[in-house]
Amino acid sequence: MKVFADKMFNTLEKHREEIARGWCKAVRKNPRTLSFDNVPEEECFKRAIFFYKNLEQLYFSEKPYTEVQDYFSDFAETAYGFSIPLHEALYGIIMMRRHMWLYTEFQAPFLNAMDHYQAVATINKTIRIFDHGIYAITKKYGELKGQ
Predict the structure, then answer these.
(1) Interatomic CA distance for residues 66 and 93, integer angstroms
(2) How far apart are alpha carbons 44 and 7 in whole angstroms?
(3) Which one of 18, 36, 74, 95 is separated from 87 by 20 to 30 angstroms, measured CA to CA?
């Protein structure tokens, strides 16, 4: 699993700016995330770069749950500060994951059964991180609203 994850994160590192700019453009135009258009373009880009840059640390962490909580809570605070509704913030995260996958998938095609197995394991672990992140965002929004 580590081999494919390393390939994915190497691709992410090499093309981080391109992926982040693509996400910013998409999230600001998507009808499901219209509030992101209120975020200045450079701030959107800066947040996406931070997100993609630090995702690898979460992935390889021994016990990522606390780090995931902090990481996604920060995203939630920023989104909340820009008056982005919860459902749009969550869809923005889903789009962020999708942009990462689509880009890395085209850069690192599967070559054999072992690569395929490692890719599936990597995807599953990344999805688990995002699932915990979605929970953290939802929890943080509730705290920020005083619920």
Answers:
(1) 18
(2) 26
(3) 18
